[in-house]
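Please review this one.

:::
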Amino acid sequence: MKRRFVLYYRVSTPRQGRSGLGLDAQKAAVANYLGEDGVAVVAEFTEIESGRRDDRPALDQALTAARVHKAALVVAKVDRLTRSVGFLLRLLEAGVDVRFADLPAIEGPTGRFMLQQMAAVAELEAGLISARTKAALAAAKARGQRLGGYRGGCFSKRARRLSKETLSTNADRRAYDLAPLLASLRSEGVTTPAEIARALTARGIPTARGAPHWSAPQVTLIEARLAKLQQQ
């Protein structure tokens, strides 16, 4: 079976997204990382937003696709991610093998350790920035300068919120990831567990353990878990 990959790119402005500024270089770096032999790109996503924001819909879609297809997520560049605590925590909690095109030797347990260290440094830097900002504001206030509202510390609060919202188990998350596909199959008239199992197999969706073939009991378990989650 070919190695499967989901590709994720990020550009800062809509203009960059339309013109390809920055995007072409990222795609070239990813293509060079993947090579040509034994590789299957199952999906690719481009995020157009500011690096300081934590809401990344394209990243969420990319992580879901990576989990559904049991694929590794390839991020084109790591250099602009080190200050985004929410982004790093989301990658750590996603249950996905993350690769960096500009750091080809970093993957697997080493890659996860690197992400943990990056998140720790980003959290420390955010705290130091917050402390310096508070000190500067206090000094300005002491001089009698009028001040606006303080917004320091937002990264830590967002990081904690993202952590609390993480699904409790990988099985639950897997069921959620597959739910839209199962609903789509039912709308096409594919309704019995055996039919759904054949459809998932035909579409190249691996099972939770990475096997290429689905069975009717596996589909039944997924549907039962979804029903239980919907009742909660």
About this structure: The chain has a mean pLDDT of 76.
